[in-house]
Write a sequence for this structure.
């Protein structure tokens, strides 16, 4: 399938390791990478706190679209002024909101580069290895019930979970294919 640039989106967690992974894997698409803090890891450990937008863009300015990134980034306590939105108890709600927002996008293919624990525990409920990927569709039955659920594509089931990256490379790639309801 050949896609036009307007049919493809790349959403990336605004953390350096995810941006680096997106750059290595998806730069060839020639589309901007939308930074979205909703896709960041769930903890406030030093490796998961992020960098200010000004230093985040160094070396990636031509790839990144940071216009939707909260001006308080990377402060997880201030973002959206809600307790624990990026930490602990509300992480599952954030994951489900991410899935819902994906379902509303107009593109035919959306690549999401995020983090294993967040994807595994709050979005897909599939285990991810380092630099791993999965392909998902929106579940048709759930869609008709006005809910959003992801179903793993048969192609990625035998291949996913086999990432072989070094421990330094820890961004994840998740591919979401969007199918118009009329195509069901």
């Amino acid at each position: 399938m050949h896609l036009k640039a307007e049919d493809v989106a790349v959403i990336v967690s605004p953390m350096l390791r995810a941006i680096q992974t997106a750059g290595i894997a998806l730069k060839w698409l020639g589309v901007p990478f939308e930074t979205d803090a909703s896709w960041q890891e769930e903890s406030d450990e030093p490796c998961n706190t992020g960098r200010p937008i000004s230093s985040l863009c160094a070396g990636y300015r031509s790839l990144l679209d940071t216009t939707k990134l909260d001006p308080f980034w990377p402060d997880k306590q201030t973002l959206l002024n809600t307790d624990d939105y990026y930490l602990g108890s509300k992480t599952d709600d954030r994951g489900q909101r991410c899935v819902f927002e994906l379902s509303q996008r107009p593109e035919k293919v959306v690549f999401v580069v995020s983090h294993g624990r967040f994807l595994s525990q709050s979005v897909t409920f599939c285990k991810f290895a380092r630099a791993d990927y999965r392909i998902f569709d929106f579940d048709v039955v759930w869609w008709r019930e006005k809910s959003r659920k992801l179903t793993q594509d048969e192609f990625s089931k035998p291949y996913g979970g086999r990432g072989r990256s070094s421990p330094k490379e820890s961004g994840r790639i998740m591919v979401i294919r969007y199918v118009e309801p009329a195509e069901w």
